[in-house]
Amino acid sequence: MKRSWLALVVLAALVMLVVVATPRRAHADQPGAHTVPVAVLALDSEDSEEQADALTGALRSRVRAAQGWSLIETTQSLGMLTAALKCPSHPPADCQQKISEQIKAERYIWGFVTRGPTTGQVTAEIHLYQKNKSDTVLKESYADNLKDANDDTLRKVAARIVERLGGTALGVVVVKAGELNGEVVVDGEKRVPLQKGTARIELAPGGHSIEVASTGIPSSKRNVLVVIGKEAVVEIAPTQETEPPHAEKPFPTRTVVGGVVLGAGVILGAVAVQQALFYGELQDRGKEVAKRVEAGQKPCEPSGDQEFCNIDNRSKTASAFAIAGGAVGAVAIGTGLYLLLTNGSSEKTASAPKRPQIVPTFGANSGGVMINGAF
User: Fold this and answer.
1) Residue 66 has pLDDT above 80, yes or no
2) Helix or strand or coil: residue 289?
3) pLDDT confidence bin for 371, thresholds 50/70/90
4) How confident is residue 313, by pLDDT bands cut at 50, 70 and 90?
5) How many helices, marked H, and strands, marked E, lie in the chain?
6) Signal peptide position in this chain (predicted)?
């Protein structure tokens, strides 16, 4: 009995030893239901290899910890991939797609580290490849003595890079609209294809407007609140009801011209009033000066009173401006009112009341406005 118990103890110890000693297989971070998997390729460099390796490690650590992102573990470097795929060291768009297919990742970070722009600094040029999206690129300069991936300062540099790439603010909106094909307009700017009634959009957290536009149906708009790491579903029921087209309103030429003419008339009227007041002032001054002119004397002759002559000439000019400005201003005001208050249409229904008509009148010595109509 004791031998059986001892054998069982020895057997259990051997099993535990085997389990502990067996090497475990490394796994990539498993992306959550609403996280975005991203790979970080080892950065390339010709003159700053240590700094490039350190920044690569810091970026991977930051992506692994970032909300909304999950890290795809890979040991691949940009230099190895471009050489294997026979691509330039700075891969163009088609080579970036080949790299994506090679590492089986729809998103990956790649880039370079070079010395400069000043002594004691290096500059990282970081790219974010995303399938079917434009390349995101940024540059970050920092001290060249940061060669440890665990350095707090380098970690802050990596956090700043990931944040600028959008790694800390991701949410997902899924749009469902039957079987429609068209596009989804986000916040009136960003446009995403809608295929077979479905579109999946990654957005920053906060409120966003989602509008579905498809040929032959009126656009439908919804508001949605995006939360980091969460998925919001927006369902829009398609409808074939269309609003009757609105006839485009023609440019209001009549109104604009009427307003301009009316404004000009008011200005001319103001000038006429000012000149009339000035004329009256000159007349009063002329009466005071006339007391000094002797009977029978002609003031405007060389031997006459020049002040009286000047006042007389200026009063005549002011009078002419007042009369002309008043007449033309009255005509302009009448014409402007006529254009503004009448619609200019020759078609009138018998049941509609007759609109007031304002007709300017003017003659040789007078001007005015005549209003005809039923009130």
Assistant:
1) no
2) helix
3) low
4) confident
5) 7, 14
6) 1-28
Helix, strand, coil share of the chain (percent; to 5): 40, 25, 35
Burial class from Cβ neighbours inside 10 Å (0-12, 13-18, 19+) for residue 157 reads buried
311: left (phi over 0), alpha (psi -120 to 50) or beta: alpha
CA end-to-end span of the chain: 124
Predicted confidence at residue 116, as pLDDT, reads 87
Check whether 82 has a pLDDT greater than 60.
yes
pLDDT winner (highest mean) among 219-233, 272-286, 296-310 = 219-233
CB distance 36 to 104 below 8 Å: no
Torsion, Cα 109 112 118 120, to 10 degrees, reads 90
The span from the CA of 327 to the CA of 35, in Å, is 79
Nearest-angstrom CA–CA distance, 223 and 171: 15
Q: Which whole number is the average pLDDT over 175-188?
A: 83
Residue 112 · residue 125 · CB < 8 Å: yes
b or e along 257-280 (b: 16 or more beta carbons within 10 Å of the residue's beta carbon)? ebeebbebbeebbebbeebbebbe
Give tens-digit pLDDT for 131-173: 888 888 889 999 999 999 999 999 999 988 888 887 555 677 8
User: What phi and psi, each to the nearest 5 degrees, are found at residue 180?
Assistant: -70, 150
Residue-wise pLDDT for 226-254, tens only, equals 876 677 888 877 665 555 556 677 777 87
Enter the tokens of residue 268.
Answer: 């001319």
| Location of structure tokens 């000693």 | 21
8/253: higher pLDDT:
253
DSSP string, 100-141: HHHHT-SEEEEEEEEE-SSTTEEEEEEEEEETTSPPEEEEEE
What structural domains and CATH numbers belong to the chain? 27-165 (3.40.50), 171-235 (2.60.40), 253-372 (no CATH)
* 229 in Cβ contact with 68 (< 8 Å): yes
Within 10 Å of residue 134's Cβ, how many Cβ atoms?
A: 8
How many whole angstroms separate alpha carbon 127 and alpha carbon 109?
Answer: 6
